[in-house]
Amino acid sequence: MQYKRILVLAPHTDDGELGCGGTINRFCKEGSTVHYVAFSTCRRSLPAGTPPDALEKEVKKATKILGIPSSNLILFDYDVRVFNTLRQQLLDDMIRLKNEINPDLILAPSLNDTHQDHQVIANESIRAFKEVSIWGYEMPWNNLSFNTQCFVELQEEHVSVKAKALEEYESQKHRRYLNKEFVYSLANIRGIQINVKYAEAFEIIRTVVKLPSSL
Question: Which of the residues 36, 67, 131, 145 could staple to 8 if both were Cys, CB 3.0 to 4.6 A apart?
């Protein structure tokens, strides 16, 4: 099954690239329309002395490298680490995006992600996108556990593009997981599990198989 309209839900800028950047690039290259929404540009958690719009600029460059048109990048300005107090507003935004984009696949954080903002986005996605397939992407530093129920095979070019996109996050270089070696090692591990060179793994949160006439 080929997904035509994909919506990536990133609680914060760079989450989508980290969790499923190779898959995003593969889908873009195969002709799918990919939309990316980041709910926070994390102004309050930037390193001291960093311009407040740093992550906004970086996510624009990174998603362009992945193959997402600038018109398909949506940025909200929710404050970081307080999503649990804003659940209804976040849900309302997701429902509006569902009606505007009509996606047939959602890429969201795992339900087992321990970050408080990621948990909210994962849970509200289930409510907002009742009729849509949802895959939970992997962020090992946040996942208390992770069910590798779905694998997307990647070519070296997809992994390379993911790594290049993440290089745009100059403000986040202090993160130990934000480096080329980690990107390739995780892709290699997931590839070994399905006997290919590279892959990304996902949890299946929901699978919806519709009749052709309802697409």
Answer: 36
SS3 196: coil
Integer Cα distance of 66 and 200 in angstroms = 15
Q: Report which of 133, 16, 139 is spatially closest to residue 74, judged by C-alpha positions.
A: 16
Q: Which of 7, 77, 66 is nearest to 42 (CA)?
A: 77
pTM of the model: 0.96
Q: Under 8 Å CB-to-CB from 28, ≥6 apart: which residues?
A: 34, 66, 67, 68
Name the helix (H) or strand (E) containing 206: strand 198-206
Domain holding 33, by residue range, is 5-214
pLDDT, one tens digit for every residue, the chain (215 residues): 689 999 999 999 999 999 999 999 999 999 999 999 999 999 888 888 899 999 999 999 999 999 999 999 999 999 999 999 999 999 999 999 999 999 999 999 999 999 999 999 999 999 999 999 999 999 999 999 999 999 999 999 999 999 999 999 999 999 999 999 999 999 999 999 999 999 999 999 999 998 887 55
Total domains in the fold of the chain: 1
CA 125 to CA 130: how far, in whole Å?
Answer: 8
CATH number at residue 104: 3.40.50.10320
